[in-house]
Amino acid sequence: MRVPDADLFNPQSVMDSDFSPGGASASASVDPDFGFAFDDSNFSDRTLRIEIMPDLPETKSDGGGCCSIADWARNRKRRREDFKKENDFIGQSEEQILNCNLPYTVDGVTYENQDEEAMAMVEESPSDIGLNSNQIGNDSIYNNDSSKNMDCPKVLRVKTIHISSPILAAKSPFFYKLFSNGMKESEQRHVTLRIHASEETALLDLLSFMYSNTLSTTTPTALLDVLMAADKFEVASCMRYCSRLLRNLPMTCESALLYLDLPSSVLMADAVQPLTDAAKQFLAVRYKDITKFQEEVLNLPLTGIEAVFSSDDLQVASEDAVYDFVLKWARTHYPKLEERRGIFATRLSRVIRFPYMTCRKLKKVLTCIDFDPELASKVVLEALFFKSEMPHRQRALAAEEANATYRRFVERAYKYRPVKVVEFELPRQQCVVYLDLKREECTHLFPAGRVYSQAFHLGGQGFFLSAHCNMDQQSSFHCFGLFLGMQERGSVTFAVDYEFAARSKPTEDYVSKYKGNYTFTGGKAVGYRNLFGIPWTAFMSDDSIYFINGILHLRAELTIRQ
Predict the structure, then answer these.
(1) Whole-structure pTM over 0.90, yes or no?
(2) H-helix or E-strand containing 267?
(3) How far apart are CA 173 and CA 312, in angstroms?
(4) Residue 25 covered by a domain
(5) 308-338: pLDDT as tens digits
(6) Fewest CB atoms within 10 A around its CB: which of 177, 232, 388, 532?
(7) At 459, which CATH number?
(8) Does an H or E element contain 528, and which?
(9) Are 145 and 96 contacting, i.e. CB atoms less than 8 angstroms apart?
(10) What is the bridge-based pairing of β-strands 450-453 and 416-417?
């Protein structure tokens, strides 16, 4: 039974009463099937007169309807462009043509539209309530004022359907307001809807759904048309139903990008959220390793870039690489500096996790012309403050963003592990490097894996740390090894004193493990195959003294030899 005083149009209430495709409805008693009463005068109290208007020539399909997602997207794009052209023309004729962004009115009663694709109501005759429905793609809206210079569109055909106002009002705030506005028009028995020919099938399917809670159509393009009609007429249960069916169909990059480009009214955002979430997840998984799809990703639209780079599972060398790639994408798609700065300020800066960028790259952000100076200072300061926090505080900040869309404090699955670096110039050039590895990361190293740190610099040369699971010198057991390498820079030689240390229980202080010196040449590395002098099983045991709260803390000190 319905809960007394429940909001019929609350999205959560509608969710609870949705019909589940492929199975029986869990709340059939709440949303019974009235399909038998559809267009039956015996069970109807009003007549719906649907006037079918011709589509604009540019929006007519070539073969009697869109046969693919691509066709549907192209048609919808043309409709948007046509609507913009129409609005440019009608700007000086407000009395004759009603701008669809305005609320629609009937004799002084205002109906606030919740969608960007608004509806308009016009008087048809003293005996009818006239409703003028713009095309799904945001086309122009006309009334019947023949005193103006512009000609009225020709009515191609008229369909008449018997309707039950309680059934339609229970499903749609639009019809609820129409039938209960308290004016004399709400008592009229005849209602006129004016739509474009391209909307006809979708509207009829929608009306049928409002009675039966099901749809006979199953093709993606037809479901998208019904979804758009349901959004226009505020039928949240149908929007959710279409979203579920579309989500169960095979996803492609084309369809995923289209779902992310659907209109974003408040109600629609709630009803179609599962579909957009699935589309984002599809793109994030497909382009998880962007190094394999660089050209494809560079050609993605903005919504696609946001979906891919919002993922925690993005397989990328470092956040520096994310920054470089996003910057390249922005310069490709927004060649004008002002537009590029705007898109970074409003959208793109949110997908870059500045706290995990290296300090050398953060310095470049401060001088990058693509960022507004105020924004650059803000993100760099935020990143530096985060780097200065204690590890437990960093984990707390990341946990606070667990359910956020953009998670700037959450670490991705970088191919090269982030490090913290403290540099000294006097009395000798020196740097102290901190590398933390999770127990899970160490587990995945067995039996012959390795993980590399991000690069750090000393005396103008790039170095890196690498942790290994390898055999000991006698090849008798597996053990944990740590190595220091210099990035290849020609035939340069570099003499360095180094020391490896690790935190250990019970004091949890860093304890020195090995000291040494080495003269590096490009591409060479030095280290210890068994850093802790114990087998791998003892190192990874539950009572291991080297994992503190599940984290292995390593430190390397490098000093340039005089």
Answers:
(1) no
(2) helix 266-271
(3) 39
(4) no
(5) 999 999 999 999 999 999 999 999 999 999 9
(6) 388
(7) 2.60.210.10
(8) strand 525-528
(9) yes
(10) parallel
